[in-house]
Amino acid sequence: MEILFERFLSRERNEPPDIDVDFEHERREEVMQYVYRKYGREHAALTAAVVTYRPRSAIRDVGKALGLSLDQVDRLARNISWWDDGKMIPQRVHEAGFNSRNTLISTALELASEIIGFPRHLSQHTGGFLISREPLYDLVPVENAAMANRTVIQWDKNDIDTLGLLKVDCLALGMLTAIHRAFDLIQKHLGIALTMSSIPAEDPAVYDMISRADTVGVFQIESRAQMAMLPRLRPACFYDLVIEVAIVRPGPIQGDMVHPYLKRRRGEEPITYPSEAVRQVLERTLGVPIFQEQVIKLAMVAAGFTPGEADGLRRSMATWHRQGGLENYGRKLIDGMQKRGYDETFARNIYRQILGFGEYGFPESHAASFALLVYISAWLKHHHPATFTCALLNSQPMGFYAPAQLVQDARRHNVVIQPVDVLSSNWDCTLEGKNDQLAIRLGLRMVKGFTQPGAQRLVRLRGQMPFQNLHDLSQRGGLSKSDLQALAGANALSSLVNSHRRQAFWAVSGLKDSNPIFQNMQVSEGSPLLRTLSTAEEIQADYGSTGLSLGPHPLVLLRSELDQLGISTSAEVYQKTNGQKAQVAGLVITRQRPASANSVTFVTLEDETGNINLVVWKRLAEKQRRELLGAHLLGAVGEIQRDGDVLHLIAHRLLDHSSLLANLTNGSRNFR
Length: 672
Known about the structure:
Elements (H helix, E strand, L loop, with lengths): L18 E6 L3 H12 L4 E9 L2 H11 L4 H9 L10 H7 L7 H13 L3 E13 L10 E3 L6 E6 H7 L3 E7 H17 L13 H8 L12 H10 L4 H10 L2 H5 L3 H8 L10 H7 L9 H12 L3 H17 L3 H13 L4 H14 L6 H20 L1 H10 L8 H10 L4 E2 L11 E3 L6 E3 L10 H13 L5 H8 L3 H9 L4 H4 L3 H9 L25 H12 L7 H11 L5 H4 L7 E12 L8 E7 L2 E7 L1 H6 L1 H6 L2 E11 L2 E11 L12 E3 L1
Parallel strand pairs: 1-6, 2-5, 7-9, 10-15, 12-14
Antiparallel strand pairs: 2-3, 3-6, 4-5, 8-9, 10-11, 10-13, 11-12, 13-14
Main location: cytoplasm
Pfam families: DNA_pol3_alpha (PF07733), DNA_pol3_finger (PF17657), HHH_6 (PF14579), tRNA_anti-codon (PF01336)
Enzyme class: transferase
């Protein structure tokens, strides 16, 4: 590994260093307040972020300004997808049932299209602090932020860069929180004190797990694209993880660096270097530039750039899509390489790869830092799956997958999950049992609508004396009716009422607020014999109250109907070969449409046997947009695309089977 100091601080750049520090996401506010205390509010403040109009916000604000009803505005905005650009607004308006020839509607369309990209309002940067020697108010207006105890200036990061002022980014990573929580749980239950530096290095079993793409919940390598790369790259050491983190990025993909690297790694393509100097720069990545530092170093050793000029090239790479300005560097790069005896084709190929990097190239220094978290989280997943999953659940929201998918994955790894129980659960998820028999007890945080203050009061009073019955819980716990109903709906009161969910909800509904005169009076009345919920109803209630179910997967109950429709399970699909036809269906757990993917949408479906990855081309996505975005249970007919253990289904037709789910709804996480 070779880290260039010029990327951090350059004499020729004559500006402050670039400082980014990642902290646990649950402690970021603590760090921010420390900065305010240390430097004082006169010398430290958050930078602003300029929020610009996107299609959805543009149509909302213009519609309101022109007097459209809130219902109309909402219908217009909700029909615009997160990936739509301004050109798609007229089509989306037509699809929503509006007449684009109407004078008011056409005016709204015209104005909305004009303001897309214009500033809408100032917000706070996620963690960029401006720190100055002189009082900030002598430079720029400082104002109180919407969040308590924060102050923010009216300049954004681009203004700070232009003025050459020092900005320190105090950023947050959810995985740092999860790792800290996991270490605490291991210390508590196993008596083993772990730190990031004491995790055993280069564990072959961990790399085997990673190479199988068994990485749900693992930092950085749990996405569909990363999982598709892992069996091809098959990381076997730490530096392989550094490359894995960096190579699945728009820069290397657009610069056509991925396939050459994989072919060379598998011995399918010769590794050549035009000079010994280039070999020293590219040898660690088999002759393919993958990191930003390699681009900088290539410019220096092959084209004669000074360190400062090379870093200027890097900075131009980061902005040329928006501002241009890379042409001068390109000409100098090609001329410099030719003067030093390099072939023009090689020089132009390097320049083309630089253009591919654009603003998406990943620094080796960052990739190495992230790779450490990749390895540690993978080690925890392999050796302590219950602990790792418990820590992830307590660190939500974070990551690529919702708690339902994390729990499903843990159960596939033989982790026992216990339900939420008012007599056993704390606010956070906890571990029960000893040593290798640890099970996860879901916490009260999983119950929708249940408040944290109510949970903390309940746990405190339960520790003083166990609750005897529902009346005791109601009287001593001081819980609101809504809290009690949330617990009943999540089946968390069953052990207390010695009955099922429906009976518990009935009992809670009959509770009366305590009377100051007759505080302990309890009126006994008969309870109706309510029918227990069917398995399907239990699953629906579970998803509605906690977002997941510990019962059978919903598709287990639908399998006979799906079989009649000719729909294969995920396990059956993975037995098929490249080019075979297949029909699948599953709960939609993620949709992703990266900007670098040429408008291709990637969808991950989940059934009772595993996950299926769909590739939906732009034409089909537009044709069947309603099914793609609206279905909770999505079916697809298509063709298998297989490369070894990596399998995708190229969708030819989409089907919405959501009606089979009745009232069950699951949340999908959508990404760019």
